[in-house]
Amino acid sequence: MLKKILFSILIILGISFLLLEIASFLTLSSLKDKPSNFKIFYADSQADFIKKSRSKMVEAHPFFGFVATSSDYYHKNNIGFLTPINFPYKKSPADFVIGIFGGSVASSMALYIEKHPHFIEILKQKAPSLGKRNIVFLNFALPVAKQPQQFAIYSHYQDMIDITVNLDGYNEVSFNSFGQPVEFPFWYSILFQNQIENFEKLAQMKKIRQRQNDLFELPVKHKYLAKSSLFYFVWKALTISLEKDFYFYSEGSQKGYSIDSKSFKNNEQDKEELNRMLEGARNWAYYTNLQATLAKALHKRAIFILQPTIRENHSKVLSKEELAFLELIPNKNKLIQTTKVFQLLKSQLAQMDSKDSKDSKVTKFLDLTYIFKNKPETIYTDDCCHLNSHGYDLLIDTVFTTISQSL
C-alpha cells in the first residue's frame, strides 16, 4: 500500500513538473528579452557575477581607505589590489606601465584587458612607438573606490607608472554616506567603526556571496538544468533575492543609504541627497585637479576620464533590457539628480581641460559620458554604469586612442 502511495505521489510530482516546465517554456517564448542560448547566458551571468563581486569583500587600509581581502572569487596581490602583480612593481627599462585607477568600471576594464591579451597588440598598432616595449597594466582600481583615496594611491605608487588612466565620477557623487565627510571611503562605517554589529554584517555578506557563487555555478556545472525553462525563472528569482540581501548588509548598512522605497517619498531627503551629490562632485574636481597637478610636476602622463552612466538622461538610446534596469530604481528622482550633477562634473572637467591646454601631451581630460549616444544595442548590465563585453571593447578602443595621442 505504501509503495502504491509513494508511486502515485511521484507520478503526480512528475506530471506537475512537466506541466510547470511547459508553462514556463510558453511564458519564456513570449518574452522579447529571453536568452537566445541558455548555455551562453548562464556562462556569461557567472562571469559577470565574478567580475562584479571580486572586491566586495574588503578590509580597512590606513592610507588607501580599503583594499580587497582574499577570496575565492578573484586574485589579488600582496597589497589588496585586483592584479596578480605584487607591489612595488620592479619596472625594467623595456617596460611601459599603464596604471588604471577608479571604481568597479575601471577595475572591470583592467581585468577585461588582462583576460584578453590581444588588446596589447591593438594598443601597439595605435601607438607604433610602443612596438618594442613590454606593456604592463597595473590595476589600482577597486569597486566603490573614489577620490581622495585614488589620489592617495597614485601619490604612493606614481614612480611605477608611465601613464595613468583615471576612469571615475559616478562613485564620487553616488556613494556618500550621510553624517560623514564626502572624503571618507564608502565602506567607512563598516570598516572603521569596530563594533560587533559591523563584524556580523561582514560575515553575513561573505555567506551571501558564497550562496550566490553556488547559484551561478549550478547551471554551468549541470548542463541539464540550463535546458529547463522552469529553472530559469527560479534561478532569476533567487539571484534577485540574494542580491537584495547582499545590498541590505552592504550599501543598505551605510548611514543615509536606504533600499526602502518609502523613504524616497520625502522631498526634503531628496534635496539633502542632491546636495550631498553636488558636494561629492566638488570633491571629485578638487582631488582630480590635485592629482593632475602632481602628475605634471612629476612629468608623468595622465588621462582623466569622466565615465558614462545609464542614469544620465539622453546619454544613450536605451534598449528594452536597459529600460528594465531603470525600472528597478525605486526613486526616479535619482535620474534627474544624476543628470544635474553630471552637468556640474562636465563643466568642472572642461575647466580643468581649458587650464591644461598647454600641457595637453602630459595631461588629458576626456568626457566619455556620451560615448554610447548612438548605440541602441544593450551595453549596460545594471542600473548603474557597468558594461558588457561590447561596452568595454568600445571604451578600451577610445582609451587606447587617447593613450596613443599622449605619447
Describe this structure in words.
This protein has a domain at 75-186 and 254-406: Rossmann fold (3-Layer(aba) Sandwich). Helix 1 crosses helix 10 (229-249), helix 2 runs antiparallel to helix 8 and helix 11 (267-297) runs parallel beside helix 13 (333-355). Mean pLDDT is 83; it is low at 252-265. A hairpin with a 3-residue loop joins strand 1 and strand 2 (65-68). With 407 residues, the protein is of the alpha/beta class. The strands form two sheets. The chain has a five-stranded parallel beta sheet, with helices on both faces. The protein is globular, with a radius of gyration of 23 Å. The protein contains 14 helices and seven strands. The protein has helices at 2-30, 38-53, 104-115, 118-126, 149-157, 170-174, 188-191, 196-221, 223-226, 229-249, 267-297, 320-327, 333-355, 389-406; strands spanning 58-61, 65-68, 95-102, 134-139, 163-168, 301-306, 363-367. The longest helix has 31 residues, at 267-297.
Q: What is the CATH topology of the domain at 75-186 and 254-406?
A: Rossmann fold
Shape: globular
The CATH architecture term of the domain at 75-186 and 254-406 is 3-Layer(aba) Sandwich
Low-confidence stretches: 252-265
Q: What is the count of β-strands?
A: 7
Report the top-level CATH class of the domain at 75-186 and 254-406.
Answer: Alpha Beta
| Number of helical regions | 14
What is the radius of gyration? Answer: 23 Å
Query: Helicity range of the residues?
Result: 40-55%
Largest sheet: 5 strands, parallel
Strand content: 5-15%
Ends: how far apart? 84 Å
Helix-strand pattern, N to C? HHEEEHHEHEHHHHHHEHHEH
What structural class is derived from the secondary structure elements? alpha/beta
Give the strand order of the largest sheet, numbering strands 1, 2, ... along the chain: 4-3-5-6-7
CATH homologous superfamily placement of the domain at 75-186 and 254-406: SGNH hydrolase
What is the mean predicted local confidence, pLDDT? 83
